[in-house]
Specification:
It is a single chain. The protein folds into two domains: about 180 residues, Rossmann fold, CATH 3.40.50; about 130 residues, Rossmann fold (3-Layer(aba) Sandwich). It is built from twelve helices and 14 strands. The strands form three sheets. The protein has a seven-stranded mixed β-sheet, with helices on both faces. A five-stranded mixed β-sheet has the order 9-11-10-13-14, with helices on both faces. Strands 1-8 form a two-stranded antiparallel ribbon. Strand 2, helix 2 and strand 3 form a beta-alpha-beta unit. Helix 3 runs parallel beside helix 4 and helix 8 packs across helix 12. The chain is globular, with a radius of gyration of 20 Å.
């Protein structure tokens, strides 16, 4: 299989879907500037300015326009630049895109994709390092996708563009240069199917976004100590593959959930609650969670590393769980 970086996989998916369906178009700030927006490289030259639309710096305005375009039969892919900026567009996302299909009795579809880069580890500070998927997890009507490798990026983005519902497509910027294999052909991935990244029998490590890599590193460390850790990647948070995750937990009896978002009210809390309901009788100890501390993410590198989750913190949580007989 050919290899691409994470951001190249985004670009390939956009090229393929725009060629496949003339109703697909891209919009956002500086989307026609390849230096600023490498994910959109070559789109303007190939498909023209009408389908690669540079917008003013008004997240509220262009998100509302994207919702309207989706209702009119187009399939906009909105580049939000950072998930932090979605705070400026809460109303059209939560009160229009997510609800309109319900409010109009299914008379309209909202095939809108919002690409939302997020995450820390790159010293961008409190307002440019947030992981806000847990906020949108509480909005019925939104699909939430979190790919963690180039192959999944391409397959899930193509599926998101073809979906008739609004999709929040979360990208971790720290993964943009990661390289991996890309299946050939019209590669799509169904929503709601978790991936087993490493098989194991003693404990389940569930990671979302950037924490999948940390879970894999933690599993390798635990293997050196004689423990077999299974690593699971949910890939989508809405819908969540509770059955697939629960099957792993039933096999191992122990679970650690890692996310880059904050601990209080985080994605891990929802996953843990779902697993408690689905596999409570199989648990040998309480589900553990690893997440960012409940403070804004600092700029200073050592402070940032202290606040964010890490493979070492996952290993510590796993050791505590494995100590319970």
């Amino acid at each position: 299989m050919p290899e691409m970086t994470y951001v190249e996989a985004i670009n390939a998916a956009l090229h393929e879907e725009m060629a496949r369906d003339e109703k697909v178009f891209v919009m956002g700030e500086d989307v026609n500037n390849e230096r600023i927006s490498p994910a959109e490289a070559g789109l303007a030259e190939r498909f023209g300015a009408a389908r690669v639309r540079d917008t003013p710096i008004s997240e509220l305005g262009f998100t509302g326009a994207a919702v309207g375009a989706a209702m009119a039969g187009y399939r906009p892919v909105l580049d939000m630049r950072r998930i932090d900026f979605m705070m400026l567009a809460i109303d059209p996302i939560a009160n229009q895109a997510a609800k309109m299909r319900y409010m109009l009795g299914g008379q309209v579809k909202i095939p809108l994709v919002i690409r939302a880069p997020e995450g820390g580890g790159i010293q961008n500070g409190p307002t440019h390092s947030q992981c806000l998927e847990s906020m949108f997890l509480n909005v019925p009507g939104l699909r939430i996708v979190v790919p963690t490798n180039p192959g999944d990026v391409k397959g899930l983005l193509k599926s998101a563009i073809r979906d008739d519902n609004p999709v929040l497509f979360i990208e971790y910027r720290c993964l943009y240069n990661d390289k991996g294999p890309i299946p050939e052909g019209d590669h799509t991935i169904l929503f709601g199917q978790a991936a087993v990244k490493r098989e194991g029998s003693d404990i389940t490590l569930i990671g979302t976004g950037s924490q999948v890599a940390n879970c894999l590193e933690a599993a390798q460390t635990l293997a050196g100590e004689g423990y077999s850790a299974e690593v699971m990647d949910p890939r989508t948070l809405r819908p969540l593959d509770t059955a697939g995750l629960a099957a792993s937990v039933r096999k191992t009896g122990r679970c650690v959930i890692a996310e880059e978002g904050h601990l209080h009210g985080g994605v891990g809390a929802e996953i843990a609650a779902s697993l408690q309901a689905a596999a409570f009788d199989a648990l040998k100890c309480p589900i553990a969670r690893v997440a960012a501390l409940d403070v804004p993410v600092p700029v200073q590198p050592k402070l940032e590393a202290f606040v964010l989750p890490s493979a070492e913190k996952i290993v510590a949580a796993a050791r505590a769980a494995l100590a319970v007989i």
